[in-house]
Design brief:
The structure is a homodimer. By secondary structure, chain A is α+β, with helices and mostly antiparallel strands. In chain A, the strands form two sheets. In chain A, strands 10-11-12-13-9-14-17-16-15 form a nine-stranded antiparallel β-sheet. In chain A, strands 2-3-4-5-1-6-8-7 form an eight-stranded antiparallel β-sheet. In chain A, a hairpin with a 2-residue loop joins β4 and β5. Chain A is globular and about 55 Å long. The N terminus of chain A is likely disordered. At the A-B interface, β7 and β16 of A face β7 and β16 of B. β16 of chain A pairs antiparallel with β16 of chain B, so a sheet runs across the interface. Chains A, B: It is an enzyme of class 4 (lyase). Chains A, B: GO terms for molecular function: adenosylmethionine decarboxylase activity. Chains A, B: Keywords: Autocatalytic cleavage, Decarboxylase, Lyase, Polyamine biosynthesis, Pyruvate, S-adenosyl-L-methionine, Schiff base, Spermidine biosynthesis, Zymogen. Chains A, B: Belongs to the eukaryotic AdoMetDC family.
Chain lengths: 387, 387
């Protein structure tokens, strides 16, 4: 297989690596849920104006290149991946050598001063292991550095590595009020002292409403990610200007538009190659206030091909969706992660994925389940065989 | 609580740390199952004579201080923890700044030249995070270094970190023939080339018998470990020469002899403090050919107290055993790990521990399940509250 020959030659000949073209497709994914503000029912992250997002994304080393919205979610295609802004949920997914944790402080300030939120309810920072970690920029030069950075903000964040850490794996830093502790309280820090003071004032009141809230059922929520490597070069060729002149052509030709029906698609084909798409939909059930989305990002070069699929679409059986995605892209290896809270119809995803030992020619090599304060997580890794 | 004050003062005043007495109770645990040798039915690790074990343990930086046996298992108390030798299973558990991975090559050589084994069937190297990793000796200065060392021997070992890696966690390197790959083949290596050549010769024959064996049910096997920190100083005082003059007195006074009935106990009380015990039993069911054991090691100093409990006793309900152990030692925090293969009566341990959200005043903070090639693993971490 030409692809794996390319891969082995690039990794064995390290002296010439510096000269080779390389792009890190693996994204850093930051998802933050702000706690509803009892003193401000109109709090909304979408109040933050575009120039402020532009400035914030400069600290991340990327920029907005396309935008679409519905009445639940603002969806941005970025020069490096995507950003989704809802009333109280913020998602930033960026690839390459971007530095999303660098925008953490400015984001908290905008959330507090403009959007009206002073408390984080849940935070998830996650990524697959990088293909070339040595090319990353601080504080992203390794998971330890990323954890130390986040630990400087939070007293009770928890860091996990799922999968075989000497092979394909996936890192997660998470923080959840559901844990019943002080884990949502930012540490004293000069830079965000103002926010901290606001939090202190709300704290007591909050703890009470918290008790009531805890006895209530949370809104259902779930996220599935499928992170694929060593993809079929024939499929990857679709996402080049050589083969397609427009993003829409690539979307149709690959079958991306059929993966989740009913999505309004905003797609982008990079020159000479590379592809990003955001899909948004209102057909995710009435209970889902923060908007339904999907997003796909493709690094097609055979030497370091990478495709990520992510969606918060609810399903009691992700098997079919996983099959559609991997039959579309034909990865050599892939990781699946599913987060689901207890009211989600995906709450049994772990048992369902447990039964997916083999999908077509892909065989599962790892499966791990973790119970966190508010969410259950299922992690699985598959390889094509014979490889 | 005096204990936690001691702990916080020792960690905040790092400049005086060098002068403080410290002992790393956290053990490195290496368990190796050699594959039955079809050409040599009399292969047996217990053929390795005592002087050779003495020499091997010198490379680990520890020595034998007591010995007991039955017809299934040889049990050694070491200056730093324990060693158990059965027909084809070898367990080495060592604390302090010992270097168990340094004996890996000599062990493989003894297994091949004296005991009659040339293939590893399963290997597990595991440990809790160290309290003071900076005091460890190569190749044990961090999990990354330990993984790199083991990866230099094996092509397909898999390394995992369970639990929150920025808090209490537990590391595992595992290798299993059950994975169906080439993972049991040692890499070409001058030092163990002879063993490797023997393996090559047996390889083809082995792969065939392997196919047959894979369709057979494995002998049931399971291991439970309970790793405890921040223990009740009143309980810890039992394990000092101040309070007890003999090991037997400490065993009886603490209630260790009641934890698992029917164990023949070999216990040792260190001067001025510290305690180790091995228990062996033949009452573990006829199917259990490699012998049943338990082992406990205690570092009682309040500044760095640590107790480990380990046993391969079979149970379909470890809840009662976990309760007995933690009510005996009163830890501030503890980790439970359970390995069980599919024929073990502990195969449902994960679901059972899932229901143990709270045990007395201990509350679970983490639970993770992993399916490996031959074993399922459950990891859970608990904290006492209010802490």
């Amino acid at each position: 297989m030409a692809e794996s020959e390319d891969l082995s030659s690039s990794s064995s000949n390290s002296s010439s690596r510096e000269d080779m073209h390389f792009f890190e497709g693996v994204e850093k994914l930051l998802e933050i849920w702000f706690a509803p503000n009892p003193a401000n029912k109109n709090a909304d992250l979408r109040k933050i104006p575009r120039p402020m997002w532009d400035a914030l994304l400069k600290t991340v080393r990327c920029e907005i290149i396309s935008f679409t919205r519905n009445d639940q979610i603002d969806a941005y295609v970025l020069s490096e991946s995507s950003m989704f802004v809802s009333k109280r949920r913020w998602i930033l997914k960026t690839c390459g050598t971007t530095t999303p944790l660098q925008c953490f402080e400015p984001l908290l300030r905008l959330a507090s001063e403009i959007a009206g939120y002073s408390e984080i309810e849940d935070l998830f920072y996650s990524r697959k292991n990088y293909k070339r970690p040595e090319l990353q920029v601080s504080p992203h030069r390794g998971f330890e550095e990323e954890v130390a950075f986040l630990d400087s903000f939070f007293d009770d964040g928890r860091a996990y590595s799922l999968g075989a850490i000497n092979r394909d794996c996936w890192h997660l830093y998470t923080l959840s009020r559901g844990g019943g502790g002080t884990n949502k309280i930012l540490k004293r820090n000069n830079h965000i002292h103002q926010l901290h003071q606001q939090q202190q004032q709300h704290q007591h009141h909050y703890d009470d409403s918290q008790m009531i809230e805890a006895s209530m059922q949370p809104d259902p929520d779930q996220t599935i990610e499928i992170l694929m490597t060593e993809l079929d070069p024939k499929v990857m060729a679709i996402f080049t200007k050589d083969e397609c002149t427009t993003a829409k052509e690539a979307t149709q030709k690959s079958g991306i538009h059929r993966l989740i029906p009913g999505m309004i698609i905003d797609d982008y084909l990079f020159d000479p190659c590379g592809y990003s798409m955001n899909g948004i939909s209102k057909n995710c059930g009435k209970k889902y206030k923060e908007g339904c989305y999907m997003t796909i990002h493709i690094t097609p070069e055979p030497e370091f091909s990478y495709v990520s699929f992510e969606s918060n679409v609810a399903s009691s059986d992700y098997g079919e969706l996983i099959e559609r995605v991997i039959r579309t892209f034909h990865p050599g290896k892939f990781i699946v992660t599913v987060f689901a809270n207890k009211t989600s119809i995906a709450a049994n995803a772990s048992r369902e994925i447990e039964h997916l030992g083999t999908i077509d020619q892909w065989k599962r090599r790892d499966i791990q389940y973790s119970r966190f304060a508010s969410y259950d997580l299922t992690y699985a890794q598959y390889c094509k065989y014979p490889s």
